[in-house]
Q: What sequence folds into this?
């Protein structure tokens, strides 16, 4: 009896110690990781120390309620978690400049992903694929594809300055509740979002193709700057917020046959190969219409309400303003300007409407004014610098 008297408290104490070991964990070496191998569920965060060096294996852990975090672990070469299925909070990696592999064969659910400055990481070994995530922000990596990111829904989805990223196909993605942004990646990046039906803001820079055949509605901006594609097609898009096509040097065709409403401003400028603007179903623009370039045909015969201003300027003398002059007082609520034969077409804020003039990265807003997309461009510039420095390490 006396033996049991001391044994039972000892067992209880060991159980408490065991439970504590399955909480927040800082990993400085592989022995620390081995110490949590018996924790199928880890209730807390795993923080990989900045000083960690070499390969890391997180064996045995199946779920993490908190985050996986590593900031500045420049000597971490690969991370493997063969049994891990979910990360409840964030999966944040930054400055792992020698990381070549992420092997998470069973991972399907993550609270959010934020990876930055992983220049040696070229591919993901995510065999089952991550189908659930909140925000996904991937910047300054060596990834050549996003195979293994198989999202059904996403909040913020930003893919920036991944200079080797050549093709993206998120086949399962159906809805995005926040910004989708692709910029500064491989110049000929091809993007396929075949099942994306709804979203908020979508902006694209430096891409060679975009496929959104199922897209029906955006509540925010749809914008394209400096792309390399020749055609943009959204066969099922009925409404969007601000709509911008700016400085797309090869764009010759815009096809949105069932677009009926732009809930904001509509800007087309500096797209020198675009000859025809044909949007016969467009009825309402709640902001301004601001078209300038070398086009010779503009079909907006369905327009019944333009709540902002109207600026249409073209270099082509075969185009005329007769139709728009006829609806000037009944349809267009704001200021009106139409010039069908000008050698120097300009946008409503005085910027050149052709590529021969000074560049502009403005977009029309719901008030009809122009605002610069500087925030995204500033982020892109800083990220690009960080990436370049990381590659030198």
A:
């Amino acid at each position: 009896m006396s033996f049991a008297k001391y044994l039972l408290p000892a067992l209880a104490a060991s159980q408490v110690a065991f439970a504590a070991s399955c909480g927040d964990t800082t990993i400085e070496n592989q022995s620390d990781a081995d110490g949590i191998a018996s924790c199928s569920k880890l209730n807390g965060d795993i923080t990989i120390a900045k000083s960690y060096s070499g390969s890391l294996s997180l064996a045995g852990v199946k779920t993490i309620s908190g985050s996986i975090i590593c900031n500045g672990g420049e000597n971490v070469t690969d991370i493997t978690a063969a049994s891990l299925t979910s990360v409840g909070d964030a999966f944040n990696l930054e400055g792992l400049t020698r990381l070549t592999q992420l092997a998470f064969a069973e991972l399907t659910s993550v609270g959010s992903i934020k990876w930055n400055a992983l220049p040696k990481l070229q591919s993901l070994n995510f065999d089952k694929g991550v189908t659930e995530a909140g925000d996904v922000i991937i910047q300054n990596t060596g990834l050549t594809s996003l195979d293994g990111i198989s999202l059904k829904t996403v909040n913020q989805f930003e893919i920036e300055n991944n200079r080797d990223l050549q093709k993206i196909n998120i086949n399962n993605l159906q809805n995005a509740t926040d910004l989708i942004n692709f910029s500064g990646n491989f110049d000929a990046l091809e993007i396929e979002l075949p099942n994306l039906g709804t979203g908020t803001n979508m902006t694209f820079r430096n891409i060679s193709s975009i496929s959104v055949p199922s897209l029906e509605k955006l509540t925010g901006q749809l914008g394209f700057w400096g792309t390399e594609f020749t055609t943009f097609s959204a066969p099922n898009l009925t409404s969007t917020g601000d709509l911008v096509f700016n400085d797309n040097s090869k764009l010759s065709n815009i096809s949105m046959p069932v677009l009926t409403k732009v809930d904001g401003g509509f800007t087309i400028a500096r797209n020198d190969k675009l000859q025809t603007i044909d949007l016969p179903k467009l009825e309402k623009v709640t902001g301004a219409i601001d078209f300038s370039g070398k086009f010779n045909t503009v079909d907006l015969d369905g327009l019944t309400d333009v709540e902002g201003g109207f600026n249409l300027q073209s270099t082509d003398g075969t185009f005329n303003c007769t139709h728009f002059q006829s609806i000037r007082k009944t349809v267009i609520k704001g200021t009106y300007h139409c010039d069908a034969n000008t050698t120097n077409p300009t946008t409503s804020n005085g910027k050149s409407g052709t590529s021969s003039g000074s560049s502009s990265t403005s977009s029309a807003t719901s008030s009809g004014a122009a605002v610069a997309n500087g925030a995204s461009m500033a982020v892109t510039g800083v990220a690009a610098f960080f990436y370049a420095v990381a590659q030198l390490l």
